[in-house]
Amino acid sequence: MRLFLFIAATCACAAPAHAASPLATEAQRSMEARALRLLASKPVQAQIAYVATRFRAEPFAATPEGGATLAAAAAEIGFSGAVGAVNQDAARPQVEWLWTPAHDWFGMHVPTAKVLMPNVDNVFRLIPVDAASHYRITAAPTGNVPTQVSLQLLPGLPGEASWSKVIQEMLDTDIRRDAKGGYTLTVGPEKLAGTHNHIATTPAARFILVRDTVADWAHQSPYRLSVTRLDGPPPGPPAGEAAQAAVAASLIHQTVDQLLGLRAHGFLQGPPNVLTPPKVREGGRWGLSASGHFRLADDEALVLTLDPVGAQYLAVQLANGWLGSVDYLHHTASLNNLQATPNADGSFTFVIAPRDPHTRNWLDTTGLHEGTIFVRWQKLPAVPSAAPAIRIVKLVKAAALPAQVSNTARELEVRARTAGYARRFSP
Hints:
- It is built from 5 helices and 23 strands.
- The chain is an alpha+beta fold.
- The strands form 5 sheets. Strands 14, 15, 16, 18, 19 and 22 form a 6-stranded antiparallel β-sheet that branches. Strands 3-6-12-8-9 form a 5-stranded antiparallel β-sheet. A 4-stranded antiparallel β-sheet has the order 2-1-4-5, with helices on one face.
- Strand 15 (about 280) and strand 16 form a beta hairpin.
- The radius of gyration is 21 Å and the shape is globular.
- It starts with a strand and ends in a 5-residue tail after the last helix.
């Protein structure tokens, strides 16, 4: 069996998909198959149409690029809702990989499931939990470990009002690992003060979201995760597909309000071609973030010079005007500090442009002239100072930039990028 990754309808890469892959599990196959059935259901299709209707009421929909990207953006939100609905039984928890690029495996075509511009370097996995049970989560390395691992105990999923109310966050710096680099966590209602590898649930707890930040696509690999429910009340009957379709429809319906609010009051809150001042996230434990949107002519480029401020992970990601996916497997539509070339002083200069300016660190808009930008600084040595993080943001003519990268070199860069991403799906 072969695995093929796709963005939209374009084949990205191929790699073996078998039991050794940390993501190609039987549970994942089963959940994706169910999500596909939910996607075809009337309630989910009706809500995808509702998202498209809400999008069409936005001024951006009247632009050529807004209209061209609208349907795909609504569809990926729709499938994200279906994916989120299939693994909500805390009495029968499974590890679910979600917010994925489209892919073909196990005899299925699985479309893109993305919502609220998730980090393209992250492998996101979801585990349902409750406060009446105890669980054990084990993580085994499958190669070089990710740049960062974080776990969040959440009361809800994207779209739900409780989504941003994180109950507990655990970073890899909080976790004691074994001699092989793996770790085991316990989950339960006990506080267990002073205990490192324990997540204390509350009555509001519903999910644990695990992020493996795989910055080096060519060499790092996500952990192999498993979950065991150790005790708790006897399970009730599992939810049927009609009930799960109703949950998916509700998630989709709620998401559009959240997305349009984030788009209007976050990414588009200022003029184009600027970034918001860096925001300290979770008291500095997570790091910093900044956002904005670009509006560029064919002959223009937006130049960003960023200071890592000690972060082990710095990344810039582009999306379309709906916060929807662009083809980051065949294009350098996202770059992090392990993929980019630094300046002599350790800073990074990124160039956003719809056409290749032949500079280092080109962020390819995939031909789009309008879209959104998100910047992340993670794994900082201390509570960061945001002041020096953004040095330069300026609009220039692309022809004025130095020619540093040939067509052949760019082709090799993208080819290596595509092959590197495929490693996530091979042993």
